[in-house]
Amino acid sequence: MENYLVRALTKKSGIRGLACLTTGVVLKVAQRHNASPAATAALGYGLTGVALLGALLKVQQRVGLKIEGDGPLGKMIVESDSYGHLRGYIEHPDVAMAPPIDADKVAELIGQQGQLTVIKDLQLKDLYESVVPLQTGRLDVDLTYYLIMSEQVPSVVEISAPVDADGVLRVAGGLLLQLMPGGDLEKLRQMAERLDDLPSLDALLSNGETPQSILATLFSAHDDYDVLEVRALQFRCECSRERSRQALKVLSAQELEELLAEGEAVIECHFCRERYRFDRSEIQALLDEKAKSN
């Protein structure tokens, strides 16, 4: 599988590890948005980060990240569900920056002033929402801060999605280490130190390492572990013509009349750029339905 995530758990020290490869998904989303190399690098961080959080969900749950910094990138929104389906968009996909683009340059694009919002649909009455201030603009550092401060779970997040001197994203991937209830915090610290001693994730993945082998390198020196899941990751958007029609139905009769006068209505999905067109007859049908309901 070109894009996938591995979830593992140590047997004694109670540490969960997630590692993923997201290159293909990032490139597909970037292509749909005609993203610049700079925006592609930022999407690499956002989509990889939300893929890691999505793997912590239960069945039919969803998670979204909204990153709003003071950098030229503008707002970035990325989403994942519990099945590894990813999507996202950036406010300014044409943002320019000379390559190569590393983590520090992505932080400049995002900005250090702003906020990170985590929204979860846990299939409860209300959505869960938590907002933390951006710490650095480096999304892996900011996600680590969120997990520790808001969810109060000792965690380490590392993401790599550099764009090379040719303006090409060669590889994107991420890693999450997290302490389970009753786990050994000292072991987590040792693994974090071991991670700091290794080459960057992009260097490891570019040189043939896999999510499985990276977790093995971190875990095997400290504890036996079990691989619990290997999950495919893919781009998928939930927009549809019917959902777009439902969005038109909430418009007032006056707004629908104005669209009728224009001759058509066009709804474009922010996430996948798919465009849904509704002609005069379809708009008139919506007006007729609204008149009957009144």
Number-wise, the strands total 13
Please identify which CATH superfamily of the largest domain we are dealing with: Hsp33 domain
Query: What is the fold-level CATH name, i.e. the topology of the largest domain?
Result: Hsp33 domain
Widest β-sheet, arrangement of strands: 7-6-3-4-5-11
Q: How many whole angstroms does the radius of gyration measure?
A: 21 Å
| Structural class assignment | alpha+beta
**H/E element string?**
EEHHEEEHEEHEEHHHEEHHEEH
CATH architectural group of the largest domain: 3-Layer(bab) Sandwich
Low-confidence spans: none
CATH classification, class level of the largest domain: Alpha Beta
Residue-averaged pLDDT, rounded?
95
Distance between the termini: 53 Å
Largest sheet: 6 strands, mixed
Shape: globular
- Number of helical segments? 10
What does this entry look like structurally?
The chain folds into two domains: 4-235, Hsp33 domain; 241-293, CBS domain Like (Alpha-Beta Complex), CATH 3.90.1280. With 294 residues, the chain is an alpha+beta fold. The strands form three sheets. The chain has a six-stranded mixed beta sheet with strand order 7-6-3-4-5-11, covered by helices on one side. Strands 8-9-2-1-10 form a five-stranded antiparallel beta sheet, with helices on both faces. A two-stranded antiparallel sheet has the order 12-13. Strand 12 (264-268) and strand 13 form a beta hairpin. Helices cover 37% and strands 28% of the residues. Helix 1 crosses helix 2 and helix 9 runs antiparallel to helix 10 (280-293).
Summarize the structure.
This protein has ten helices and 13 strands. With 294 residues, it is of the alpha+beta class.
